[in-house]
Amino acid sequence: MTEHPLPAAAEEAPRLLLVDDDPTFCKVLSMAFEARGFEVLIAENLAEATRLAKESEPEYAVVDLRIGQESGLVLIEQLKKQDENTRIVMLTGYASIATAVEAIKLGAIHYLTKPTDVDEILDALNRDAGDASVMPSEHLISVQRLEWEHLHKVLADCGGNISAAARALRMHRRTLQRKLNKHPVRN
């Protein structure tokens, strides 16, 4: 079991920035973190998250990949520029290999898929090393999942610009948006 950074009685509570556009999810997760001794700052968009990060300099951040129409990847980059020691976990319901790789390259220490709970997030925030015991899947990836992964990789390569990604894929922008808004195919 991983030890979580709980504050000592005389110490200040560690600050955690929680960035997600789902207010209910934020409220539930915030209460769980506060029960474990954290001071939680909640932002529901990138502008608010950037402002809170500058004002409070959080030690930890939990950032959703999709925040409305914005990308949480941008925030990871900003948080790391502000303080390279901020420990960041990216959460998403739209996991893809491309976004996982980019999140780690930009400075996130872990990438978790929703649904998740506070204990899993705390374990990720406190884990420094990879886990070599994770087993590769026994199943081949489906054509639908490959397409979904490819679309997200091209979008990431285009800096999140849907119009540029649509041009690169020789696809209508609305078609690409519709495909990107679908939940990922499992296999």
What does this structure look like?
- The protein has 187 residues and is an alpha/beta fold.
- It has 2 domains: 15-126, Response regulator (Rossmann fold); 143-181, Orthogonal Bundle (Arc Repressor Mutant, subunit A), CATH 1.10.10.60.
- It is 46% helix and 16% strand.
- The protein contains 8 helices and 7 strands.
- The protein has helices at 23-35, 46-56, 72-82, 97-106, 118-126, 143-157, 162-169, 173-181; strands at 15-19, 39-43, 60-64, 66-67, 70-71, 87-92, 110-113.
- The strands form 2 sheets. A 5-stranded parallel β-sheet has the order 2-1-3-6-7, sandwiched between helices.
- The radius of gyration is 17 Å and the shape is globular.
- The model is unreliable at 6-10 (pLDDT under 50).
- Summed up, the domain count is 2
Provide mean pLDDT, rounded. Answer: 83
For the largest beta sheet, what order do the strands appear in spatially?
2-1-3-6-7
Note poorly predicted spans. 6-10
| CATH C-level label of the largest domain | Alpha Beta
Percent helix among the residues? 40-55%
How many helices does DSSP assign? 8
End-to-end distance, in Å?
Answer: 30 Å
Proper CATH architecture of the largest domain? 3-Layer(aba) Sandwich
Number of strands: 7
* Class based on secondary structure composition and strand pairing: alpha/beta
**CATH homologous superfamily classification of the largest domain:** Response regulator
**Proportion of strand residues:** 15-25%
Order of helices and strands: EHEHEEEHEHEHHHH
Q: Would you tell me which CATH topology of the largest domain applies?
A: Rossmann fold
Quick one: overall form? globular
Report the major sheet.
5 strands, parallel
Q: Please state the CA-atom Rg, rounded to the nearest Å.
A: 17 Å
